[in-house]
Amino acid sequence: MAIKTFPENLSQNKGLSIRIVSPEFGHLSPESAGQYGSAQRLPYYFFLFVLQGNSQEIIDGELIEIGKHELFFALPHQVRQLPSTGHSGDYYKLGFDDECLLRLPRKFPFLLNPLNRQKISFLPDAALRLWNTFKILKELLHTVDSNPELILAYLNSLLTEINAAYFVLHKKPAPAGLDKFLGFRLFVEDNLTEQPAITEIAEKLALSTDGLYRIVKQHSGVSPKEFIIDRLIIEARHRMYNEPNTSVKELAFELGFNDPGYFSRLFKKVTGKTIAAFYQDLSL
Fold this sequence. Notes:
alpha+beta, Jelly Rolls, 2 domains
């Protein structure tokens, strides 16, 4: 089992896992792009915003047309297939991982996609605000040494605008199962360091353990246990980044592990790195 993280060679900033692409900026070389193949199970959040023109995206086998003032987004674990046609007009693509998201001051419910919609339309004024925010992010990511806090501030503004449009313009009720998955994620977030048992979560959501497994597997691609472990390791890395002097023992206890040795082994199993190696990377 391995946690899905943002590919290191894609990041455009030393302190964050984030990349932006526009018609004239940020494209990978054909050799680099070729290593990802024509289809990829996304390890990060992906956005495509079209100001003028049109584009196509194929996600989980579904072809989605994106036109003027529309934004497409895809979530980790979804399968994105490269379309046969390119983009026309003015557009921005953006990718970032959960660690970026965890450093923002608020949560964004639209990223759980409770309405099961992956395309959002914007009114002209909102589209222009969105475009300008993308433009500032591109300017900040022109250099890898840009202040991560500035990047996060504009990313927070961008996601706030998108979140508002998602819930204002889409009134469709959530399909069966998504409300339970949303409840699962919120319960995990609220009780993460207590490491709740799967049976406890299922009981809180009025589900059987098998029912919970099916719903979480359907919407995240992993089992409930794997989801919680991945989330704990992401939280561990987040805390290590912000508090690099925390000992392994302290960190383990903060995250609800009674055995620091088990926590260390789990961290290496999930990330492929020891905790010491991760701390060493942070100091470089």
